[in-house]
Amino acid sequence: MQTLWQTRLMRPAYVAYAGCDIQYHRAPPPPDLVSRLHLVARTDEGLVVVCRSVEGWRFLPGGTREPDEPVPHLAARELTEEAGAELRS
């Protein structure tokens, strides 16, 4: 049985600042549909890795996929570029 927040999270929504429609799914999308990726990375202590912009905003590491770049490589590259961290699994 889904909780109320899970039901709300899984429903389609419009994100005005990004100008796009989104919907969360439990299964990963087909790789050809992935153009951007942001990931929730955890440290060995279980803390979530976040980045800070020059304006002071906090954000999850991620970014735009290069042409023909495998999704796992995208995740590892962005985690290194944005957070200086290494993807282990």
What does this structure look like?
- This protein is an alpha+beta fold and 89 residues long.
- It is 22% helix and 18% strand.
- The protein has helices at 4-10, 71-83; strands spanning 13-15, 20-22, 36-38, 51-52, 58-59, 62-64.
- The longest helix has 13 residues, at 71-83.
- It is globular, with a radius of gyration of 15 Å.
Write the layout of secondary structure elements.
Blueprint: H1 4-10, E1 13-15, E2 20-22, E3 36-38, E4 51-52, E5 58-59, E6 62-64, H2 71-83
Antiparallel strand pairs: 1-2, 3-6, 4-5
Entry summary:
This protein has helices spanning 4-10, 71-83, and strands at 13-15, 20-22, 36-38, 51-52, 58-59, 62-64. By secondary structure, it is α+β, with helices and mostly antiparallel strands.
Which key terms come to mind for this protein?
89 residues, 2 helices, single chain, globular, alpha+beta, two-stranded antiparallel sheet
Gap between N and C termini: 29 Å
Count every helix, treating DSSP H or I runs of 4 or more residues as helices: 2
| Helical residues, percent | 10-25%
Rg (CA only): 15 Å
The count of DSSP E runs of length 2 or more, i.e. the number of strands, is: 6
Strand order of the largest sheet: 1-2
Q: Note poorly predicted spans.
A: none
Mean of residue pLDDT?
Answer: 89
Q: Which overall shape is indicated by the principal axes computed on the Cα atoms?
A: globular
Strand content: 15-25%
Strand and helix order = HEEEEEEH
Structural class: alpha+beta
Largest sheet: 2 strands, antiparallel
